[in-house]
Amino acid sequence: MDRNPQLNKNGELQHLLSIEGLPREVIERVLATADSFVGVTEREVKKVPLLRGKSVFNLFFEPSTRTRTTFEIAAKRLSADVINLNIAASSQSKGESLLDTIANLSAMQADIYVVRHASSGAPFLIARHVKPHEHVINAGDGRHAHPTQGLLDLYTLRHYKKDFTQLTVAIVGDVLHSRVARSLIHGLTTLGTPEVRVIGPQTLMPSGVEALGVHVYRDMREGLKGCDAVVMLRLQNERMRGALLPSAQEFFKHFGLTADKLALAKPDVIVMHPGPMNRGVEIDSSVADGPHSVILPQVTFGIAVRMAVMSMVGGASA
Amino acid sequence: MNTLPDAEKLCVQLADMIRPQLTQNTAMIGLYTGGVWLAERLHPLLGLAEPLGTLDIAFYRDDYHQQGLARDPKRSNIPFSIEGRDLLLVDDVLYTGRTVRAAMNELFDYGRPARISLAVLADRGGRQLPICAQYCGARLEVPAGARLRLRRGEDGRLSLQLEHGS
After folding, report:
1. Can you list the domains of chain A with their CATH numbers?
2. Which of B60, B75, B77 is nearest residue A48 as measured by Cβ atoms?
3. What is the mean pLDDT of residues B51-66?
4. What pLDDT is recorded for position B1?
5. Which of residues 36-65 of B touch A (CB under 8 A)?
6. Alpha-carbon distance B142 to B162, whole Å?
7. A52 to chain B: nearest residue by CA?
8. How many Cβ atoms are within 10 Å of B114's Cβ, its own excluded?
9. What percentage of chain B has pLDDT greater than the value 70?
10. Is the Cβ pair A36, B105 closer than 8 Å?
11. Which of A50, A192, A293, B47 gives the lowest tally of CB atoms within 10 Å of its CB?
């Protein structure tokens, strides 16, 4: 069998493409390293010299503000030079192929590619073709994976709840289209979380999702009972135009997180959301801004997690 | 060399050496891992006012591009302002000097100390940088391929250990 494309011959992280298939030790090493970087981000000088002289190319074939910005901040705090390419407005729209784009950037001495692409698997394709000293980090590919978001969710859970082997975690909403949900489910099961629930309407639930080791709930109130953490997913407005959902109001009534529904979870439950939030669609403002919400700390932790991933892959030889 | 000096005795001797030089302004920082163990001994012996600071130099190492990121870096924690301080940096063994250089680089990202001095339990020579210790428990000759390190037993006792390269 081929070696895991994300790991080098010493089992170290060479590219980050997906949480699926990552050994537990590698995930735990990312979380431990991120913890040290949280210390750096609390200092007055929030910068370390690890990637000095290296070039990080942010290749966003799909629009994103938050993820691109947090990758940019993370790379700058590692002292890398960051180049943001707005691909939609560049050569790909003139017909250049993905691999030709990469070959050109490689000729510009790129070291790390941070890739977001609407097609599942695009970062894998790039990773197969880059030079041995070049690294690829998946910043979200199609419906497939968003591993740094999954890792920052895991970091947040560990920060507030410590022990994964005691947790009940519910993921709520549009699981079908969510690469965030898939990445988090793989991470949670790898770290030994005994109870992972997915809650949502049948039209937004992938068929065979149980095979990932989760329990499916159609009734949100039932699914929230006894939860230590609730992860709300963004309901993408564009889905509303299809036949998947009757209306935002209808969705909010059944699957929107309100204080009233949240009261069914454990008293110390935490509420997470990958952003951007649709207030009044998947989450009520009083919950988003309430005492259980850790949505803004997630953003802060996300920078430290991305620093950890970039410094781990950047130092791994092929 | 057959016997290494007793690390516990060296701790006390080192504290006696440092004590006359302390000022109101002195604060101590231990380097992970052995330096923190040593600093945890010295700190109460010297009765310093500020709590102990700890530093992990993983993000400042000069061999990152050869070796990659160190496994299991600890979170550096300096619970006082280092601006204008007399800092006493503590490590277990002084060898090439590269760890101390990295530590100084990291410290300057926290502020501008008035002075930095270095205390080590043992100096084994072999310097690759112009760095020396102001306080040194023992000077030991160690073959180039061997590794001299501080160990902490389950009972908390410190001891020096020599590991021969394969």
Report:
1. 24-145+300-314 (3.40.50.1370), 147-298 (3.40.50.1370)
2. B60
3. 95
4. 47
5. 56, 58-60, 64-65
6. 8
7. B65
8. 12
9. 98
10. no
11. B47
